[in-house]
Structure formats: structure tokens, C-alpha cells
Write a structure and sequence with these properties.
Elements lengths: L1 H11 L4 H15 L4 H20 L7 H18 L4 H12 L6 H13 L32
Length: 147
């Protein structure tokens, strides 16, 4: 979901914002219509950040925070609706990445996309013996020990 979030955030300050926004909303309308208002509001907030940068180029643009927010939105969508994988992958390939106006960023995202297998679900098998402990994480990890 890193590619989706990075491409969407890049589009905020580019020429393809309308198409990117529409594409994101279309996916949510098809897959999770109850969340469309929340996603629409999040897109409005992101657009406001982009407008600020367009009007005042010296203003700081919170790209990192916006990318994290959108990674969370996409992860939640796929967690709740794993069947939406193809819809999200199509959005990434056909709308978001092509809409990135900066050639270097578009090339970077295309490389990331082509080197991945798309939106994936990883399965990790870990075997421990005795009193050994193992931790495997694809994102956040919270460790609680019990005596």
C-alpha cells in the first residue's frame, strides 16, 4: 500500500489530483460504501494541504504524514475487504501511478510496483522450541510478556 499512498500524495500537488481523487472514491463506493463520506473528507483535507503548497510553495508539505494516513486507509480497506485487492491494484496501476507528474517519482513508484507482486498477503511460518520467543511483524508490533 506504500505505492498507492505515495502516488496519491504525489498527485495532490500535481495535475492529476481530480482523476486520482475520483479513482479512490470509486473504489470505496464499490467496496465499502459506508466509508465514502469519511474517505471524501480525508481527500478534502489532503487537497487543502496541496492547495496550500500550490499557493505558498515555501510552506511545509506534510507528505510523510499524509502517506502514512493513506497507507492506513488502504490497509483498513483491504483488511476488512480482502476481495478488493484487484480493485486497489487496478487503481494503482491505471490511475495513481500514471497520474504522478514528477517523472523521477513516477519512475520510482513504477519500479516499486513492478518489483512487487501487487497487493499481497504474506504468510510467515515461525517455529520455536523450548523457552524461545519469536517476533514477526509486517507493520507495528506490540509485545506483552506474561510470567
Amino acid at each position: 500500500m506504500t505505492v498507492a499512498a505515495a502516488a496519491l500524495v504525489s498527485a495532490i500537488v500535481g495535475d492529476a489530483w481530480a482523476a486520482s481523487r475520483d479513482g479512490v472514491l470509486d473504489v470505496w463506493r464499490r467496496v465499502h460504501p459506508r466509508r465514502v463520506r469519511v474517505i471524501d473528507a480525508a481527500l478534502d483535507e489532503a487537497s487543502g494541504e496541496g492547495e496550500l503548497v500550490r499557493v505558498h510553495p515555501e510552506a511545509p508539505f506534510p507528505a510523510g504524514q499524509l502517506e502514512e494516513d493513506w497507507q492506513n486507509h488502504f490497509h483498513a480497506l483491504l483488511r476488512d475487504h480482502p476481495d478488493a485487492r484487484d480493485d486497489v491494484e487496478q487503481l494503482i496501476r491505471e490511475v495513481l501511478v500514471p497520474g504522478v507528474s514528477e517523472p523521477g517519482k513516477r519512475a520510482e513508484l513504477t519500479t516499486l510496483l513492478n518489483n512487487s507482486t501487487g497487493v499481497v498477503n504474506n504468510v510467515n511460518n515461525v517455529t520455536v522450541t523450548g523457552k524461545a520467543q519469536a517476533a514477526v511483524a509486517a507493520r507495528d508490533i506490540h509485545w506483552n510478556t506474561r510470567d
